[in-house]
Amino acid sequence: MKKVLIMTASTGGGHNRAAKAIVEELEVRTFNGEKIECKIIDSFKLVNQTMDKVISEGYEMSAKYTPYAYGKIYNLSDKKFFSSNEFKNNPLSIVMARKFKKMIREELPDLIISTHAFPSVALSRLKKGARGEELGKDFEEFVAKTKEETYNFPPLISVLTDYTAHSSYLQDEIDYYICGDEYVKELLIEDDIPEEKIKPFGIPVEKSFMENRPREEVLEELGLDPQKKTVLLMGGSFGAGNIKGTLDELSVIDRDFQVLVVTGRNESLKKSLESRVSEYDTNIDIKIIGFTNIMNDILSAIDILVTKPGGLTTTEALLKDVPMIIPYFIPGQEGENLDFLTNCGVAIRTTHKFSLKSVIKVLIDNPERIERMKENIRGIKKLNSSENIAILSLDIFENYKVDYSALLNKKSALEKLEHNGLMNFSSFLSFFL
Q: What residues contact 44, with CB distance under 8 A and at least 6 apart?
């Protein structure tokens, strides 16, 4: 039975969702008549629960409250000097590599797929050893001693979950890159990644997301009018962005439409908005909900999405043919996502001059512009990302066999030594009993 490890991290919802989508597609397939075993591993949790909490919650807090500071760190770390030095030798990647070494010895995977940059960096460090590079005593079992020594490290696939390529993702040891679009492929080529390694399959989304109920049923269930233009306002899984100010702007537009706000897991934002809406003097119907598991239905029922440009959010909107308006974003990868979306003609960025108010009016008054954006969306969206990743995985299984005999021999020798030591100690104790 072939085994695939999918390495992810809980910095935003997109990495985990992409991992689940890949597993969903792999587990319905077989290789040589046998099922494929998949295991999703949260990289930071594997290392340390405290580290996971600090990094995951730190990302969420910085995205919400200090986005510009986050953007500066992102841009600094994207410099080639840092990507080629800092990421490969920093303490975090070394600690992760040690944990991953133990994981690989226990799991013996045939393939590892990463949906986050950090595990890719740590795994690449280990893979250097299989190429003969000295890594130090802690990693000596992964180091090939001769050119003839059998390769003992699984292939690596890196899945980019944004429409850009941060330098930390770019590692020589990665066998394949999955990216969201041909534009991103060109970015990778410009960063000296061989073209044959790059597959512009799109960002993976669960197949069940493509199913949806009729618009009328969904909007009526939410207490909205199916006959009205519907604008969805949101800020990702934790409700980031200037949603309060944006809702204030929407509430004073003199057009006949309705607004649905999704605040995600941000309960305090939901309560604050409900209190705010109660004081509005507006004829616009506004409905506010928190976390929901029917985004597949909602995105199929709306006309315009007002959001920040997270990788997964924008991918889901593209899959549902929903034009986007972007009034706010977290500097860093979201700024680069925004460049991609506007350059493709599938989103509009608001500015002081081109306000949200004026953009909404123009789109409602000129529905052919919405249709034009939908046509652009249909030209770039990728419908079968997970399926194509699964097919690539089967091809890897067919052409690539990982030989773990060196690791297993060392492991069995160590276990035998430990067993003999334990037996000798037991015999010593029995002398006194």
A: 9, 10, 51, 52, 55, 56, 118
Tokens of 429: 């104790």
| Predicted confidence (pLDDT) at residue 237 exceeds the cutoff of 60 | no
pLDDT of residue 413: 46
Looking from the CA of 153 toward its CB, the CA atoms found within 13 Å total 24
Residue 155 is predicted with a pLDDT of: 93
pLDDT at site 112: 97
Residue 264: per-residue pLDDT: 87
Q: HSE (CB half, 13 Å, CA atoms) of 240?
A: 23
Residue percentage of the chain with pLDDT more than 90: 59
- Phi and psi dihedrals of 377, rounded to 5? -60, -45
Tell me the C-alpha distance between 429 and 246, whole Å. Answer: 74
What would the pLDDT profile of 88-98 be if each residue is shown by its tens digit? 556 667 777 78
Count of CA atoms in the C-beta half-sphere (13 A) of 142: 27
DSSP line for 291-356: S-S-HHHHHHH-SEEE----HHHHHHHHHTT--EEES---TTHHHHHHHHHHHTTSEEE--SSS-H
Q: What is the DSSP string of 146-211?
A: STTSPP-S--EEEE--SSS--GGG--TT-SEEE-SSHHHHHHHHHTT--GGGEE-------GGGG-
Tokens representing 160? 């980019």
Backbone angles phi, psi at 126, to 5 degrees: -65, -40
241 neighbors 248 (Cβ within 8 angstroms):
no
Residue among 227, 291, 222, 228 nearest 260 (CA): 222
- Of 110-114, 170-174, 337-341, where does mean pLDDT reach its minimum? 170-174
- End-to-end C-alpha distance for the chain, whole angstroms: 47
The span from the CA of 82 to the CA of 323, in Å, is 36
Q: At residue 286, does pLDDT exceed 70?
A: yes
**In 205-310, alpha helices (H):** 215-221, 243-251, 267-277, 295-301
Phi-psi domain of 332 (left: phi exceeds 0; alpha: psi -120 through 50; beta: other)? left
Q: What are the start-end ranges of the E strands in 43-101?
A: none
Contact 286, 280 (CB under 8 A): yes
pLDDT tens track for 328-345: 988 888 999 999 999 999
Both tokens of residue 311? Answer: 């990788």
pLDDT given at position 410: 59
